[in-house]
Amino acid sequence: MTNSDLNTTLVVVGAGMAGFAAALQAAQDGNDVILLEKLAETGGSSAMSGGCLAFAGTDLQLANGVDDSNELLFKDLREVGKFENDESLVRAYVDNQLDTYEWMKRAGVQFGPHIETSSGQSVPRVHNVDPADAVRALAASAQRTGRVRLLADTRALRLIRDAQSGCVIGVTAERGGETFKVLGSRGVVLTSGGFVQNAGLVHRYAPQYNEETAVFIGGAGNMGDGLKMAQQLGADCRDMIYIKGTYGKHPADETNHHSLLAVYKGAIAVNQNGKRYVDESISYKLLGDACIQQPYSATFQIFDQPIFDSGDNQTRILDIERRHEEGLVIQADTLEELAGMIEVPADALIGTVDAYNRYVDAGHDPEFGREHLVHQHGKLVKIQNAPFYAYPSAAAVYGTYCGLCVDAAMRVLDVYGEPLAGLYAAGEVVGGLHGAAYMTGSALGKAAIFGRIAARTALAN
């Protein structure tokens, strides 16, 4: 060891929501933590997110007249993931979600009073936070314990194993040109995020997504560092083929990093030929896949005034009015005029809308089988009341939603399914929860939930 080497109880790598959740939980349980963050600022992709968390059975749902349960949350998560997700991880999420919601409130996280329904949800369970404020609240609570030492501008380079036992006991880190060791008597929790900013790594696993077909948005540090460090020790990965873009990102807007999902309020999606091409109620990850297969990898969400008015200004992905104020929503008095403005064949667009309205009246969509506004929730509505609107939409890869294999205790597993002793993971670096698609709020939700589980497991061993 050198004079600059550091010792603690638990080492956490990555200071986003998962990292602060792990650090705070460990500190509340009476343990010392060193939290490493390679950037100058904390928060990562968590702070850039839409601020949605998926919880069930909360006081907010009760206040809004929503009947939800662990069983329905479990069912929705499994179904939206097309049963490709790990049932044990889904169960871990569900069994710990309500306690984590209350824990976050006690830590100072402020949830908005209104909840909404979004991708993969059968009832409204989008609990909204200001994402940067939420991370700051967890960070402040962690700092108040006096047990968490944050090292910003500090990059973890490699995991360190004990020469005799093979147990992970720390990391080699670099700060200001100096390399040193950070050792944890109870091991290391990787909360280092995904790899959305590593174009080569994304293309390796999802060659259909590139700079021509999608936009890539995420924390600047999301290069896959933690993933590669664990892989070097033999860690297995899963769900890599399910990297997908989220539908609804305006292709020409470089300032707003969020998608708009007017489809979940009743809009339809049409391509450059003015034709529908998908069941608009499915997960927006699957909508992203469908979008990039269309001409120019960009389409339009088409809706009318009642759908516009049904938008929710408390939920970023449903805030139609805000996008209109930003000049991103195209408005016209007639569908024919709208078609001219977005340069699609007027007869095709009018025919598509007319056919869809007949499907709504008939209660059956013979083209794509759409039955609800979103997943199993909401009655379909016709598009018939002027003015009419179009929102240009592409796919944006906000996160990789795949990664290290872990068990329900957040122990990282090797390629034989055995735990790598002393190594734990949580947040976006973990695969297995989402499966083939994604429920709104489950990424930020799993960061907090799995971060707590990882810390508790590490400290119990």
Structural class based on helices, strands and sheet pairing: alpha/beta
Sequence stretches where pLDDT stays below 50 over 5 or more residues? none
CATH topology of the largest domain, anyone? FAD/NAD(P)-binding domain
Distance between the termini: 25 Å
Shape annotation:
elongated
* Tally of helical segments: 14
Measured as a percent range, the helix fraction is: 25-40%
Instruction: Provide the CATH architecture of the largest domain.
Output: 3-Layer(bba) Sandwich
How many independent structural domains?
2
What is the CATH top level name of the largest domain? Alpha Beta
In spatial order, strands of the major sheet run 7-3-2-11-21-20
Quick one: CATH superfamily of the largest domain? FAD/NAD(P)-binding domain
Radius of gyration: 23 Å
User: Strand tally, please?
Assistant: 21
Proportion of residues in extended strands: 15-25%
Biggest sheet architecture: 6 strands, mixed
Summarize the helices and strands and which ones pair or pack.
Elements: E1 6-8, E2 10-13, H1 17-28, E3 33-36, H2 44-48, E4 52-54, H3 59-63, H4 70-80, H5 87-106, E5 115-116, E6 126-128, H6 131-144, E7 148-151, E8 155-161, E9 168-175, E10 178-184, E11 188-190, H7 199-205, E12 214-216, H8 225-232, E13 237-238, E14 246-249, E15 268-270, H9 284-292, E16 299-304, H10 305-309, H11 320-325, E17 330-332, H12 335-342, H13 346-362, E18 388-397, E19 403-404, E20 411-413, E21 419-425, H14 442-460
Parallel strand pairs: 1-10, 2-3, 2-11, 3-7, 11-21, 12-18
Antiparallel strand pairs: 4-6, 5-6, 8-9, 9-10, 13-19, 14-18, 15-16, 16-18, 17-18, 20-21
Helix pairs in contact: 1-6, 1-14, 4-5, 5-14, 12-13
